[in-house]
UniProtKB/TrEMBL annotation:
Keywords: Chromosome, Coiled coil, Meiosis, Membrane, Nucleus, Phosphoprotein, Repeat, Telomere. One of its GO terms (cellular component) is nuclear inner membrane. CDD domains: SANT_DMAP1_like. The keyword Repeat applies. Meiosis-specific telomere-associated protein involved in meiotic telomere attachment to the nucleus inner membrane, a crucial step for homologous pairing and synapsis. Component of the MAJIN-TERB1-TERB2 complex, which promotes telomere cap exchange by mediating attachment of telomeric DNA to the inner nuclear membrane and replacement of the protective cap of telomeric chromosomes: in early meiosis, the MAJIN-TERB1-TERB2 complex associates with telomeric DNA and the shelterin/telosome complex. Signal peptide: none annotated. This is Telomere repeats-binding bouquet formation protein 1. One of its GO terms (biological process) is meiotic attachment of telomere to nuclear envelope. The lineage of its organism: Eukaryota, Metazoa, Chordata, Craniata, Vertebrata. Residues 664-715 form the Myb-like domain. InterPro entries: ARM-like, ARM-type_fold, Homeodomain-like_sf, SANT/Myb, TERB1.
Length: 721
C-alpha cells in the first residue's frame, strides 16, 4: 500500500513538471496553454499536496506572471482560475499569493474596459479566495483600493431591476454581481473587520432599492447575506442602516413574503432569510424593535412559525428573532399575547428536543414576564396610554382579552411553582442531612454508655433500659431510624443481661410506645408484644443439635443466643401505620457467627440446621439434587471429573503456542557465512553488532549467528576466508 502511494506521488510530481515545461515552451499556442492549465487545476483538486509541490517548483509564480503578461483572454481566465483553485486548496499557496502586487494587478483587471465579464468574474474569484479567512488579505484589499472597485461593481453591474436570466448577457452579468456580493461578504466578516464594514455600509441605500423593486430569490439571498454580515456585531453600522430606512424595507419585504408563503414554499424559505437579517439589525439594539411593531412583525413571525415546511433550524431563527423583538419593546410583547404566541412557545418547549430552540423559547417567555404581570393585575394599568376612551375601545373590541390575562397568570404560576419546588428541595436536603447527623451522634453516645455499663461503670440495668427506650422512642419520632441502626444499638448492649431482662424490656418498650401515641397505636403495640413473645418461645424450644457431647457449631458470642429475639423486638417496636410489621424468621444460615464462612462449611451449617428458612431450604434441596445426579453419573462413567485439570490444560495450551510460534528453518548461505567471518574479524564476538552491520536474512537473531559460528569453527576442515 505504501509503495502504491509513493508511486502515485511520484507520478503526480512528474506530471506537474511536464505541464510546467509545456506552459513555458508553448507561449505561442494559447490553446495548449489553456489545456495545460486546466490539467494542472484538475491534478491540484485531486491531491491537496500537489499545490504545495507546484509552489515549490516555481509553478505558482509562473502562472501569476502568465496571467499578467499574456495577451490572450482565454489564457488569463484559465491562469486566474488555476491560481484561485490552488490557493483554495492550500493555505501556504494562499499566503504566497497574498501580496499587494497581485491585488493591484487584480484591480487593474477589474477597472480595464477591455476585460470581458468572464475575466472579471475570474478576477473576483481570486480575490474571494485570497481574502477568505485571512485578515492580512482583508487589509490588503482595502489598502490597495480593491474593495472600492468591488463596491462600484455592486452598483453598476446590474442596471435594471427586472432580471431576465434567460438572456445570456444578463445571466453573465448576474453571475459577476453575485460573485461581487460574496466577495464583499468575506471582506467584512470571518474574521470581522470593522473598517471594511464602515466602507461597505455606503451600499445600503442601493441595496434597499433592490429589495423594494425586485423581490426574487436570486436578488434577496445575496443582498440579505451582505447586509447581515456587514451589520454583525457593529452597533454604528446597525444605526446607520436603520437611519436610511433599511429596517422598514426589510419589514415590508417580510410582510409580503409571509403573505405569499401560503401559496409557494420558496416564499416561506425566503421569508426565513429576511427574518435572520432583521434579527441581525436588532440583536445589539433591542430598542429598535418599536419599528417592527408598526408592521406587526410579531404576528407575521408567529404565522410563519406554523408553516409545516420549516425545519428546526429555521424555526429556531424565527423564535430567536421573536426574542429580540420582545426584549425591550412592550408593544411587541403585547402582540405576542394578542396573537396567541405564548401557547406556541410553550408547545415548542414541550415538543421540541432541540436545546437551542428550547433556549430561544425560554428567552421569549422570560421577556414577556413583566408584561404578563401588568396584564394580570388590571386593565387600568395598561402601559400604552391613560386615555379612558382608548382603553374602553380596546376592551369592547377585543372580547378575548381576559383569556390573555388567564394565560399570563398561568405562565406566571408555572414559573413561580418551578422556583418554589427547587427551593423546597434544597431546604429538604439540608434538613435530611442535619437529621441524619444528629441521629448518628445519638447512636454513638448511646453505644458509649452501653459499653461503659458492660464494664461495670454504668448505671443500673433498670435505669439503662429506661434510657435506652427513650433513645429508641426519640429515633422513632425523628423518623430517621432504620432496622440496621436499631439492630446496631440493641446488639451493642450486654447480651447476657438482655437475655435475662427480656420481659422487663418488653414492658418498657410497650410503655414508651403507648406514652408516645396512646390512642392511635395501642392495639398494634399489644399485638406486636404477643408476636414477639411467641417468636422468643419458638427460638428457645429448639436448641442447636449436639454430636459427641460437643456442639457442631460453637458460639463464640453469647449475644447470638438472643439475636433473633432482639431483632424481632426492634422490628415490632418500629412497626407503625406507615411501616407495617414484618417478622423476619432466620435460620442458622442467616446469621454469620464464628469464623468466616465459605462454600464448604456453609453447606455443612445449612444441613445441620433443623429449622431452615424458605430461601436456604431451596438452596439445600437444589444442592442435594445436583450431588445425587453427579453420583449417578460417576457410577455410569468413572472417568468424569468434578474439577477441571488446570495443569493439563495449561500444558496443552503452552505446547500449542510453542508449535504455532516455531520459526521456519533457514539455511545459511555462503554470503551469510562470509558476513559472519568478516564480522568476527572486525568486531569480535559482538553478535548484535554483526547482525546489524551485515544484510542477513530476515528472521536471523544474534543467537543464530553465535551457534553457527561455533559449529563452523569446530569442524577441522573449516578455515576462515
Amino acid at each position: 500500500m505504501a509503495s502504491e502511494d509513493t508511486k502515485k506521488i511520484q507520478e503526480m510530481k512528474t506530471d506537474l513538471n511536464l505541464l510546467l515545461e509545456c506552459l513555458k515552451y508553448q507561449m505561442d499556442n494559447p490553446f495548449s496553454q489553456k489545456e495545460a492549465l486546466v490539467t494542472i487545476h484538475s491534478i491540484c483538486q485531486q491531491n491537496s499536496n500537489a499545490g504545495v509541490y507546484f509552489r515549490e517548483i516555481g509553478g505558482l509564480m509562473f502562472i501569476k506572471n502568465l496571467a499578467k503578461s499574456s495577451e490572450h483572454s482565454m489564457v488569463k481566465e484559465a491562469a486566474l482560475y488555476t491560481l484561485g483553485a490552488v490557493a483554495e486548496q492550500s493555505v501556504y499557496c494562499q499566503q504566497t499569493l497574498c501580496t499587494s502586487e497581485l491585488f493591484e494587478d487584480l484591480t487593474s483587471f477589474l477597472t480595464n474596459n477591455d476585460s470581458n465579464t468572464n475575466l472579471k468574474r475570474m478576477t473576483v474569484y481570486v480575490i474571494l479566495v485570497l481574502v477568505s479567512n485571512n485578515r492580512s488579505g482583508q487589509t490588503l484589499v482595502r489598502e490597495t483600493g480593491c474593495i472600492t472597485v468591488l463596491t462600484q461593481l455592486f452598483r453598476t453591474v446590474l442596471s435594471k431591476y427586472e432580471l431576465n436570466l434567460s438572456d445570456k448577457n444578463t445571466f453573465q452579468s448576474y453571475q459577476l454581481w453575485s460573485s461581487v456580493c460574496s466577495t464583499l461578504c468575506v471582506c467584512v466578516n470571518n474574521p470581522q473587520n470593522d473598517e471594511n464594514q464602515m466602507l461597505c455600509c455606503s451600499l445600503f441605500p442601493h441595496a434597499n432599492d433592490w429589495l423594494i423593486n425586485c423581490i426574487k430569490p436570486e436578488v434577496i439571498r445575496p443582498i440579505c447575506s451582505f447586509i447581515g454580515l456587514t451589520l454583525a456585531n457593529n452597533t454604528y453600522v446597525q444605526k446607520y442602516f436603520i437611519s436610511v430606512g433599511g429596517l422598514d424595507v426589510l419589514s415590508q419585504v417580510l410582510v409580503q413574503l409571509e403573505s405569499d408563503s401560503h401559496k409557494t414554499l420558496s416564499s416561506a424559505k425566503l421569508a426565513v432569510v429576511v427574518t435572520k437579517t432583521v434579527d441581525a439589525c436588532i440583536a445589539d439594539n433591542p430598542t429598535f424593535g418599536i419599528i417592527l411593531s408598526k408592521y406587526q412583525i410579531v404576528s407575521k413571525l408567529l404565522t410563519l412559525l406554523l408553516h409545516e415546511s420549516l425545519d428546526s433550524g429555521e424555526k429556531f431563527s424565527i423564535i430567536l428573532t421573536l426574542g429580540h423583538c420582545t426584549e425591550d419593546c412592550e408593544e411587541n410583547q403585547y402582540d405576542l399575547f394578542k396573537y396567541n404566541g405564548l401557547p406556541l412557545m410553550i408547545q415548542a418547549l414541550t415538543e421540541s428536543q432541540n436545546e437551542e430552540l428550547n433556549k430561544a423559547a425560554t428567552f421569549v417567555l422570560h421577556n414577556c414576564k413583566k408584561i404578563a404581570e401588568k396584564l394580570s393585575l388590571s386593565l387600568g394599568e395598561y402601559p400604552f396610554g391613560e386615555n379612558e376612551e382608548q382603553l374602553k375601545y380596546i376592551n369592547t373590541k377585543e372580547k378575548n382579552f381576559e383569556e390573555y390575562w388567564k394565560k399570563a397568570k398561568e405562565l406566571l404560576h408555572r414559573l413561580e411553582h418551578l422556583e418554589r419546588e427547587r427551593n423546597e428541595e434544597e431546604i429538604q436536603r439540608e434538613k435530611d442531612k442535619d437529621n441524619v447527623s444528629s441521629v448518628n451522634i445519638d447512636i454513638q453516645n448511646t453505644l458509649k454508655h452501653l459499653h461503659a455499663d458492660s464494664l461495670g461503670r454504668g448505671p443500673t440495668a433498670e435505669d439503662k433500659d429506661k434510657s435506652q427506650s427513650r433513645k429508641l422512642q426519640s429515633y422513632k419520632s425523628h423518623g430517621c431510624a432504620n432496622d440496621h441502626q436499631m439492630k446496631t444499638l440493641l446488639k451493642s448492649a450486654n447480651p447476657v443481661d438482655a437475655c435475662y431482662r427480656e420481659s422487663v424490656q418488653n414492658k418498657t418498650l410497650c410503655k414508651a410506645n403507648s406514652s408516645y401515641n396512646q390512642n392511635l397505636h395501642g392495639q398494634t403495640t399489644f399485638e406486636e408484644k404477643n408476636s414477639v413473645s411467641q417468636s422468643s418461645d419458638h427460638v428457645f424450644k429448639h436448641p442447636i443439635p449436639i454430636k459427641n457431647g460437643k456442639p457442631q457449631l460453637p458460639l463464640t458470642d453469647p449475644f447470638t443466643l438472643c439475636s433473633d429475639i432482639i431483632d424481632e423486638e426492634a422490628i415490632s417496636f418500629l412497626a407503625t401505620d406507615n411501616h407495617p410489621k414484618m417478622l423476619k424468621y432466620r435460620c442458622s444460615g442467616c446469621i454469620a457467627v464464628g469464623k468466616s464462612l465459605n462454600s464448604r462449611n456453609f453447606s455443612k451449617l445449612l444441613h445441620c440446621c433443623p429449622y431452615q428458612c424458605d430461601r436456604h431450604k431451596v438452596i439445600v434441596e437444589a444442592e442435594d439434587r445436583y450431588k445425587n445426579e453427579l453420583r449417578k453419573s460417576l457410577l455410569c462413567n468413572k472417568k468424569i471429573l468434578l474439577t477441571p485439570r488446570r495443569r493439563q490444560l495449561r500444558s496443552e495450551s503452552a505446547t500449542s503456542e510453542r508449535i504455532k510460534k516455531r520459526r521456519i528453518r533457514k539455511n545459511f548461505t555462503e554470503e551469510e557465512i562470509n558476513y559472519l567471518f568478516n564480522g568476527v574479524k572486525k568486531m569480535g564476538n559482538h553478535w548484535n553488532l554483526i547482525l546489524w552491520s551485515f544484510p542477513f536474512q530476515q528472521g536471523r537473531k544474534a543467537v543464530d549467528l553465535a551457534h553457527k559460528y561455533h559449529k563452523l569453527t569446530k569442524r577441522p576442515k573449516c578455515v576462515a576466508p
